[in-house]
Predict the structure of Short chain dehydrogenase.
Amino acid sequence: MAHGGDTLSHASGHTTNHAPTDGTEEYDTMGNTGQGMLAGRTIMVTGASSGIGAAAARLFAAEGAAVVVTARREGRIKELADEIADGGGRALAVPGDVTVPADVQRVVDAAVRTYGRLDGGFNNAGWATAGTPLHETDDAVFDQVMDVNVRGVWNCMKAQIAVMLTDGRGGAVVNTASTAGLVATGATASYIAAKHAVMGLTKAGADEYGGHGIRVNALVVGSTRTELMDQVLTDTPSLEESFVSRSMQKRMAEPVEVAQAAAWLLSDRASFVTGGSVPVDGGWTAA
Ligand SMILES: NC(=O)c1ccc[n+]([C@@H]2O[C@H](COP(=O)([O-])OP(=O)(O)OC[C@H]3O[C@@H](n4cnc5c(N)ncnc54)[C@H](OP(=O)(O)O)[C@@H]3O)[C@@H](O)[C@H]2O)c1
């Protein structure tokens, strides 16, 4: 079902009875029976057209949330919303570019218009390149990395927190950072700088709005099998060994494992967790 011409795709469905064991299977009726850890919540997910964001949207919906999914690839997020609806969940697809404030505002407005509230934001869209030393990196690449990873989170936090303050219910924001937000991982300098900035925005947001019932946390994501990772490994195959060998668990994450941590942080089960840099990295940053 479409709302607002081609820009929005709203999907709502009912029933199947498969347990949401890993976020990739069909959903049961938790979203409709109010039993999931995110029941009754409306959560915006950026970067939902693939990887961690898509896994998160599936999982959040299975945990009872209405999800508002966004990314630039409209076809992908519409398919995702339809898939969630077919599994009994609630999903709204709103295409947009996180670097454009008006696009982000449109997503937030659509969430409130459709579901009456916004309780959470999973600010997960990101972009990276690999293999180019700092002094050889084009300024345009630096700009794009900072725009997507930092300005994108900035745009989302501004729009999401404004709504949360207005309706007075509080809320939770989870920003996708990276091990590169804490240390020089071997990723490009611009990506490392960008993810460090995401940590700064997270801490500042947690501090400014903690008294208003709004929690803000960052995920310190380790190597995860997604399209972004596939691209990085295609560009620089030698990185795979270093990614896996330093991880205490000697493997990469599946996207749903990152999504599980985000779901927890967005839920009331993390009610006294804010300003955190939560590792989902197989022990990489502890090594
Ligand atoms: N995979 C890893 O190993 C790893 C490790 C640490 C951190 N991370 C972080 O995890 C997050 C998710 O990445 P992923 O691994 O799931 O990679 P992915 O599969 O490539 O997903 C990236 C997502 O970001 C979206 N995106 C990129 N630029 C955008 C823009 N300008 N506006 C709106 N959306 C945009 C993409 O959608 P469209 O192209 O459709 O717009 C896509 O949905 C990123 O923040 C990344 O930095 C990943």
Observations:
- The CA atoms of residues 31 and 110 lie 20 Å apart.
- The radius of gyration is 18 Å.
- The pocket of NAP is lined by residues 46-53, 71-73, 97-99, 124-128, 148, 176, 178, 221, 223-224, 226-229 (CB under 6 Å).
